[in-house]
Amino acid sequence: MDQTKKLVDTIVEGLQDKKGKNIVIVNLTQLTGAICQYMIICEGNTPTQVSALSDSVWDMARKELGEKPLTVDSKQNSLWIGMDYGTVIVHIFIPELRQFYNLENLWADAKIEHIKDVD
Fold first, then answer.
1. pTM over 0.70, yes/no
2. Arithmetic mean of pLDDT, 5-34
3. What share of the chain is helix, strand, coil (3-state, %, to 5)?
4. Residue 68 — left, alpha, or beta (φ > 0 → left; ψ -120 to 50 → alpha)?
5. I want to staple 47 with a disulfide (CB 3.0 to 4.6 A). Which of 35, 57, 78, 93 is the partner?
């Protein structure tokens, strides 16, 4: 398994660890000009959970793979946190903003994998 796929799996594990909902992996590897190889989109019910999801991803990727994001944006209000790992970009939203921005629709020509929620 290549390093990017390991990173994707580890990020998903970090999101599931804090009960992230509606996790989607957008595979952009076959699209010319894509900004990354994979985009992972997830939601938390509250700003507190969005922040906890981001912290979990950060901790798990660092612990398991020695990876840290290049940048993390919008950490202040925790309504939408973006984490850029270079080959993988993570978006963690509150449900209302996720629905408003509808990122999955922007990449509708990519392969989209829905991850089952952990109860």
1. yes
2. 96
3. 40, 25, 35
4. beta
5. 78
